[in-house]
Design goal:
The structure is a single chain. The protein has strands at about 1-5, 10-15, 35-40, 45-50, 50-55, 60. The protein has one domain (about 1-60). It has no helices and six strands.
Length: about 80
């Protein structure tokens, strides 16, 4: 069981994993850059700070990152 909560303890996401995994990404409209998110996997909690980063004009969302920002260089795929 995976559960993500915001700084106020509100549950923002839950999931029951059906296979082994090594990474959890939390993203959505309720998560903003700089927010503190707690992710619990089978009751073991880890805190993370949501962030967005970008290179070469393409932004990628970190844990809880919002939509990509920036201009996509001509001929490159990914979000605009």
């Amino acid at each position: 069981m995976i559960e993500a909560t915001d700084a106020d303890g509100n549950v923002i996401a839950t999931l029951t994993a059906t296979k082994a995994f090594g990474c959890v990404l939390v993203s959505g409209a309720v998560v903003s850059d700089g927010d503190t998110i707690t992710v619990s996997v089978d009751g073991a909690a880890t805190m993370a700070t949501a962030s967005t980063t970008g290179t070469s004009g393409i932004a990628t969302g970190g844990m809880g990152g919002g939509p990509a920002k920036g201009n996509r260089p001509e001929g490159q795929g990914g979000p605009a």
